[in-house]
Amino acid sequence: TKGIKQTISSSKINIFVENEVGILENIYSENNIKFVFDKNDKAFEIITSYHGKNIFFHSEIISDTYLKSYSRIVEEMFEELQAEVIVLIKDGEHTIMLMSLGDKENGKSYDSYDYKALEEIYPILFTIGYLLKNIRKQKTTMIVDRELSMSKIVIESLLYNISKPPKSLIDIEFITKSSSGLGGDFVDILRLGKDKFLIVVGDISGKGLTASMSMAVFKVSIYTILRNIQHFRNLVIELNKSIKENLPKGTFFSGVFILLDTTKKEMVFINAGIPIMLYYSSKFKNVSQIQGEGKILGFVKDISKFIQVKKLTLNSGDIILAATDGLTEATSIDGKKFDISSIEKIIKENNEKSSKEIIDLVFDNWYEFVNRQIKDDVSILVFKLP
Question: Which of 11, 79, 327, 347 is placed for a possible disulfide with 323 were both Cys, Cβ 3.0 to 4.6 Å?
Fold first, then answer.
C-alpha cells in the first residue's frame, strides 16, 4: 500500500478480497471499514456489470451516462467507503478484489494522470489480488505456479504497452529479453509534447519476481514524478529518492534518461549508470561511445551533486544505441567477454538500414556469441533520426 500511496498520493486505502463463498471481505482498512460486499449488493452489482471498466472516480457519477442512471445508489457506496476512487480487480469478468482510495493527501482532485497511473499498475494489483484470494484458500502449490504466470503478464504489460512515436519524427526500436522470463530490465518511451520524448533504458537490480515488481513500481514512479517537476535533472533526483523510500533495501537502478526534441534535433541525457551508449554520426561516418560517467540510482540518498546533464545536437541519419549490462558483460561459452567493437562495426556498416534491422543484427550477433543462452537480462534500444 505504501507504493500505491506514493504513486497517486492517496490518503486512505481499503482492500476487499473474495472469500471461498464469493463474498468480498475487508482484509485491510485505514479508516476502520468493517462491512462486506456480496453478489446481491446493488451498488456492487452496478459497477461490476459495467463492461470494460475497472477504475471508477467519484467525480464520474454525474458525468458518466451509465453511472448517472444509478447515481444515488453508487453515491452511497462511495460514501460508505469514504472513497474517491474504486478499483475492481477482475479475473476475466469475475471480481476477486476491490480497492478503494480516499482523498488525495495534497488536497487535489484525482485526474486523468491518476487514471493512467492506476492503469499502469493494474497488472500488479491483479497479481496481488489473485495471490491474496488463493492464500486465503491455502492453495500453496497453485499460488507458486500462478504467481510466476501472473508476473509474466505484469512484465509483458509494462514492457510492451508503449506507444512508439511516428517514424516521420523518429525511427525507434527496442528489445528486452530476460534469462528467466521475469526481471528488472525495461525500456520506456513517454511523449511529453508534439515533438518531445522521454526515453528510459535501464535495469533494476535483483532477479525474478522481486526485480519485476520493483521495475513496475519504478516505471510508474517515472510517470507520476514527471507531473510535478519543471527540470529534467529533478526527475532523476526524485526517482533516486523514490528508490530509497519505496523499494526494498538494496535496490538499485542503472540506466540512462534521454530527453529528445525531434524538431530541434537535440538530445539531452543523464547517465545513471548505463554501461554503453553509442553514437553514429552521419556527418563524420564514425561510431563513438558517449555515455561518460554516471552514478547508479539508489546508492546514496541525495544524488544531485553526482548528476551530469549532457547535450548532443543530432543530424538526419544519426543513430543512438543504448543497452544494459546484459549486453556488455556477456561471456561466450569459453569465457571470452563480448566485444563492443562488433556492435560499432554493425552500426557503421548498416547505417542506411532501419532501427529494426539494426537492432535485429545487433541482438543476433550477441545471441550467437552467448551460444543462444541468455544468462542475464538484456535491453537494447536503437533510434535513428529521419
Answer: 327
In order of 88, 172, 346, the CA distances from 363 in angstroms are 40, 15, 11
Q: At what angle do helices 112-137 and 140-160 cross, to 10 degrees?
A: 160
Domain locations in the chain as residue ranges: 2-138, 164-384
- Residue 251, helix vs strand vs coil: coil
CATH code for the domain defined by 2-138: 3.30.450.40
**Residue 27 phi, psi dihedral angles, 5° rounding:** -110, -10
Eight-state DSSP code of residue 252: -
Closest CA to 128 of 225, 13, 33, 222: 13
Pairwise CA distance, residues 221 & 335, whole Å: 38
Distance CA 147, CA 155 (A): 12
Phi then psi for residue 266, to 5 deg, are: -140, 135
Whether 17 contacts 24, CB under 8 Å: yes
| 208: Cβ contacts below 8 Å, ≥ 6 apart | 180, 182, 183
Q: Answer whether CATH 3.60.40.10 is correct for domain 164-384.
A: yes
Report the distance separating Cα 181 and Cα 179, nearest Å: 6
- Cα separations in angstroms, 50 against 43, 64, 74, 130: 11, 11, 12, 21
What does each of the 386 residues of the chain score in pLDDT, given as a tens digit?
A: 556 666 667 878 899 988 888 889 888 888 887 778 887 889 999 999 898 899 999 999 989 999 999 999 999 999 999 999 999 998 777 898 999 999 988 788 898 888 888 887 787 787 777 767 765 554 444 444 444 455 455 555 555 557 788 999 999 999 988 876 667 788 999 888 889 999 999 999 877 667 777 887 788 788 778 877 889 999 999 999 989 987 888 899 999 999 999 999 999 999 999 999 999 999 999 999 999 889 999 999 999 999 999 999 999 999 999 999 999 999 988 889 999 999 999 999 999 999 999 999 999 999 999 888 888 889 999 999 99
